């Protein structure tokens, strides 16, 4: 198997090292793992692409490239430049430092890479490691992802879990904020919503008197509804959420059609 890996924390992020080991195990002795990751951290860029300016790319070592662009840029670079003669069978994005559950999904560059992969017709899986008091200070905060990542991906590689729809499936995997030994299992989930968590701007005045705004997130351990991603994670389970890039609200389309008559 040929695997393309990327992330949004940057080419030197520890989570990418974890993903490299996971991908190498999945690819097997006869497979290949190729890395195209952002040269600098790209957290929060979502599905952004560098449409109005070029992206510089550099080969750092064999099958390892850094691109001065977004995670989605990295996927495009991987498919149309780095691996253009032999495209990947699978795209893996992560392992993100922090969760990409609930509303975080909409901002995540980790997810953005997989959206691009799915739009390009390649099976794509995003992986993120929830942080919390039980794992943040471990020698390896990615312990749960490292221990359970390969098995989780293997469980998703069955043909009947994928399709060839116009907006193809992608999978969002979040590992719970606990040590590997305390992971209770895996649950299929929907995307949750943290009712009291929103990004906000805080102003700060520089020594020269200029105003700067810092974007800050909200509490990450707010409960979400049963059956959703963050709820499963906070209960010690790996969450797997099937997603598509189609943002249409189909139920509302029917109501809207009636209202417009």
Describe this structure in words.
Its cofactor is a divalent metal cation. It holds the Pfam family SurE. The chain has 261 residues and is of the alpha/beta class. The chain has one domain: Stationary-phase Survival Protein Sure Homolog, Chain: A. Helices cover 27% and strands 25% of the residues. Helix 5 (143-156) links the parallel strand 6 and strand 7 (170-175). Helix 1 runs parallel beside helix 5 and helix 2 (71-82) packs parallel to helix 4. The longest helix is centred in the first third of the chain and has 14 residues, at 14-27. The chain is globular, with a radius of gyration of 19 Å. The mean pLDDT is 97.
Question: What's the SSE blueprint?
Answer:
Elements: E1 2-6, H1 14-27, E2 32-38, E3 57-61, E4 64-67, H2 71-82, E5 90-97, H3 104-107, H4 109-119, E6 123-129, H5 143-156, E7 170-175, E8 185-188, E9 200-205, E10 211-216, H6 229-234, E11 237-243, H7 250-259
Parallel strand pairs: 1-2, 1-5, 2-4, 5-6, 6-7, 8-11
Antiparallel strand pairs: 3-4, 7-11, 9-10
């Amino acid at each position: 198997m040929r695997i393309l890996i990327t992330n949004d924390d940057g080419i030197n992020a520890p989570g990418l090292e974890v993903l490299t080991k996971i991908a190498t195990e999945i690819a097997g002795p006869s497979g290949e793992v190729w890395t195209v990751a952002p040269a600098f951290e790209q957290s929060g860029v979502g599905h952004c692409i560098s449409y109005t300016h070029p992206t510089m790319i550099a080969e750092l070592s064999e099958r390892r490239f850094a691109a001065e662009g977004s995670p989605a840029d990295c996927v495009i670079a991987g498919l149309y430049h780095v691996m253009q003669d032999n495209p990947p069978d699978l795209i893996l994005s992560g392992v993100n430092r922090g969760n990409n559950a609930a509303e975080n999904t909409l901002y995540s560059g980790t997810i953005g890479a997989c959206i691009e992969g799915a739009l390009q017709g390649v099976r794509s899986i995003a992986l993120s490691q929830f942080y919390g008091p039980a794992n943040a200070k471990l020698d390896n905060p990615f312990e749960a992802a490292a221990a359970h990542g390969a098995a989780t991906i293997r469980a998703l590689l069955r043909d009947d879990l994928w399709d060839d729809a116009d907006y193809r499936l992608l999978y969002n995997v979040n590992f719970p904020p606990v040590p590997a030994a305390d992971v209770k299992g895996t649950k299929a989930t929907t995307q949750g919503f943290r009712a009291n968590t929103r990004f906000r701007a805080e102003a700060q005045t520089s020594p020269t008197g200029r105003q700067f705004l810092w974007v800050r997130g909200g509490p990450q351990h707010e409960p979400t509804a049963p059956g959703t991603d963050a709820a499963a994670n906070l209960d010690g389970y790996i969450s797997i959420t099937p997603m598509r890039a189609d943002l249409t609200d189909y139920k509302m389309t029917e109501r809207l059609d009636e209202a417009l008559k």
